[in-house]
């Protein structure tokens, strides 16, 4: 059975002003993190993700309740003891001057070294292992300020690993990374968590990536609570709609994505199949159309011909006017320019020759 590394008991997080009045960000948080878990912390801007992370690592005192690290109340631990259990990767770019990558990663050993920071052969071995875990051995001799954002992010993870923590906490580690690097970073964190029996908590804004890759989500909701569960559990329970309600966004539970809601919806019949059908539907929905294979009330009919390399869309309006398009960009632009409700009309658009009339 997995061991619990971090537990919160009736945790209340937030801020107190000078008059001692509390501003509660979230309350009654009873969370458990087991070894090997990778948890993505999600929620809209300003909901309290950073506040929670700071409280979990002992940087900020809770308003009430406790954070237990390996069963010990974090409030009773000395900074050095916390540093042996928890390592942190923050988003902010830290100015490190002329520091080499190796020396930056070596700083991760500070909870274990003596007061002059002398490294033992064991420390050196841990540093090498941390560098190799993030595939940054070749960067060891480089200056940190010369690295790309993505390289620096990997090196910061190596520094956190060199601390040999039980829990690694990362605040928006994907912020500077492109999509392939985000997936790579997520894979790396999962591998480290599983192989080294550590737990990893990361705050993230990329909902799609979190749904696809996290073992566990902690979703902060506007009522000051956290919904914890497998991504699929939260999709099915409707928790995402609750957390990100408003702003004309609708959460499409079928595809696990947010979409812009553009009322009023127009109707179209879309005929075709395969990949072109899927992306045509995507383009039409983006333009405010609801598509069906059959709809007696829809004046607009689009039929897909051709293939992905040579696609062709035939447009029929009130069964009278037909135009052809060779790109979805042209089709959507044309539709946007059409008066609505539609009127039967012959078109004389030079770009799109009518191919036949009925
Ligand atoms: N030092 C502070 N004193 C008082 N209130 C604060 C302080 N820092 C943050 N807050 C408030 O606490 C709430 C939560 O902020 P927090 O930074 O934790 O949100 P977040 O979810 O990390 O946001 P984002 O996704 O935008 O980074 C916000 O309303 C914020 O204004």
TrEMBL record:
<dbReference type="GO" id="GO:0005524">
    <property type="term" value="F:ATP binding"/>
</dbReference>
<keyword id="KW-0410">Iron transport</keyword>
<keyword id="KW-1003">Cell membrane</keyword>
<feature type="domain" description="ABC transporter">
    <location>
        <begin position="11"/>
        <end position="247"/>
    </location>
</feature>
<dbReference type="InterPro" id="IPR003593">
    <property type="entry name" value="AAA+_ATPase"/>
</dbReference>
<dbReference type="InterPro" id="IPR051535">
    <property type="entry name" value="Siderophore_ABC-ATPase"/>
</dbReference>
<keyword id="KW-0408">Iron</keyword>
<protein>
    <submittedName>
        <fullName>ABC transporter related</fullName>
    </submittedName>
</protein>
<dbReference type="InterPro" id="IPR003439">
    <property type="entry name" value="ABC_transporter-like_ATP-bd"/>
</dbReference>
<dbReference type="GO" id="GO:0006826">
    <property type="term" value="P:iron ion transport"/>
</dbReference>
<keyword id="KW-0406">Ion transport</keyword>
<keyword id="KW-0067">ATP-binding</keyword>
<keyword id="KW-0813">Transport</keyword>
<keyword id="KW-0547">Nucleotide-binding</keyword>
<dbReference type="GO" id="GO:0016887">
    <property type="term" value="F:ATP hydrolysis activity"/>
</dbReference>
<dbReference type="InterPro" id="IPR027417">
    <property type="entry name" value="P-loop_NTPase"/>
</dbReference>
<dbReference type="Pfam" id="PF00005">
    <property type="entry name" value="ABC_tran"/>
</dbReference>
<keyword id="KW-0472">Membrane</keyword>
<dbReference type="GO" id="GO:0005886">
    <property type="term" value="C:plasma membrane"/>
</dbReference>
